[in-house]
Amino acid sequence: MAIDHAIKNGADQASVSISDNRNTSIEIRDQKIDKLIESNQSSFRISLYTNKKYSSHSTNRMKKEDLLKFIDEALNATKFLAEDEFRSLPDPELYYKGGGADLNTYDPKLDAVEAQIKIGIANQALNEAYKKDERIISVSSYYSDYIGNGIQVTSNGFKGDWKSTNVNLSVSVSIKSDSGRPSDYWYENAIFLDKLKTDGIGKKALERSINKIGPTKIGTGKYQVLIENRVAGRMGGPVFSSLQGNSLYNKQSFLIGMENKAVTSSLLTITDDPLIQAGMGSRLFDDEGFAAVKRPVIEKGVLKSYYIDNYYGKKLGMKPTSGSSSNLIITPGTRTMNEMLESMKKGVFITGFIGGNCNQSTGDFSYGIEGYYIENGKIVHPVNEMNIAGNMKSVWFNLVELGNDVMENESLKIPSLLFDNIDLSGL
Question: How many structural domains is the chain composed of?
Answer without folding.
Answer: 2
